[in-house]
Amino acid sequence: MNTGKLLALVRQRQPLVHHITNAVTISECANITLAAGGLPVMANAVEEVEEMVEQAQALVLNIGTLTREQVEAMLLAGKRANALQIPIVLDPVGVGATKMRLDVAKRLLAELKINVIKGNAAEIAILAGGRAKMLGVEAVAVSEDVELLAQNLARQSKAVVAVTGKVDLVTDGNELWEIHNGHVLMAKIVGTGCMTASVMGCFAAICHEYQQAAAAALVVLNVAAELAAERAKTPAAFKGELFDRLYALAPETVDCRQKLKIKEVQG
User: Fold this and answer.
1) CB-CB contact of 20 with 74 (8 Å)
2) What CA–CA distance (Å, rounded) separates 64 from 67?
3) pTM of the entire structure?
4) Dist. CA 124–CA 154, nearest whole Å
5) Residue 81 has what DSSP assignment?
6) pLDDT band of 266, cuts 50, 70, 90
């Protein structure tokens, strides 16, 4: 997989990524989209989401701070995106923490064609019908095989499933890839998961091989995190460096043998 080539293509095409997203991290998602090379728009009014998504090359749906109006907007935008074959990335933040979040995530999966589902191990386990413990929006424990659950969810949903964690996983239900880039400081700032979905939106917009797109987005953001951690040792400093290192990231750096750490474990 030529991740550097995909990064260069994102920057060349500057895809518009429409977000209906988490109010807590909306600024971070917009800024990381710009740093990756895309263009963000954060429109969630039911009166305009269909018209806005018509202009976009990808749609990111994030259930982190749900309202009834936002759910309606997600369904309107998602159905219009499906009609236009615009890819959708779903980030089921905190799914399973409340009945509302689980019901909404299931409804989105039932009524929309989702191309990429990105979540932490607990979120993916719960969506796949497994057992896991959430504390707010944080994964506490997963009592089953996450790899198997991710593959099952991919088969059920016909979406690529990306699981973020110490080692990231990406699967289409058949092939399963591990991604070993990243840094522990990513877990010390709010929003890295939401930002990951935004970067996936950028890559899904220009690469419709969605397993490659999701994996490339993870590698690019994680390599930027490794470089940021070389310059910053505290969470606040790291956050700023993450945007800067992603913005400055050279395609050849991504493809450097020491930086690209994808392992196919099944396929």
Assistant:
1) yes
2) 10
3) 0.93
4) 10
5) H
6) low
